[in-house]
Protein: Protein yippee-like
Organism: Ursus americanus
Amino acid sequence: MVKMTKSRTFQAYLSNCHRTYSCVHCRAHLANHDELISKSFQGSQGRAYLFNSVVNVGCGPAEERVLLTGLHAVADIYCENCKTTLGWKYEHAFESSQKYKEGKFIIELAHMIKDNGWE
């Protein structure tokens, strides 16, 4: 779905009735609060959240990285609107205790803001 908002076109526009997270740089919607799995993650620039799914995000090539929890294959993710790198997607976890992260997304707090219904 494409909807025009503040002179910008986004691939997806999340409903105003839900609490959402948006790109701090261009305000493109990134995730619905219902997709939040954990607030206890660390990104390269500080705290980060783990999401089950995201929108308006592009994905780079996967590469192996040693993270705090071991070796993972991850792909950097970026805002489709402003091209800012936001975090990464877990493509593969090499340790069985980390398999739950596969297919999930990390977005660093430095790159997102809360939108809609957080009063």
Remarks:
- The CA atoms of residues 28 and 81 lie 7 Å apart.
- Residues 1-7 have pLDDT under 50 and may be disordered.
- The chain has one domain: 19-112.
- Residues 19-112 form a domain with the Metal Binding Protein, Guanine Nucleotide Exchange Factor; Chain A fold (CATH 2.170.150.20).
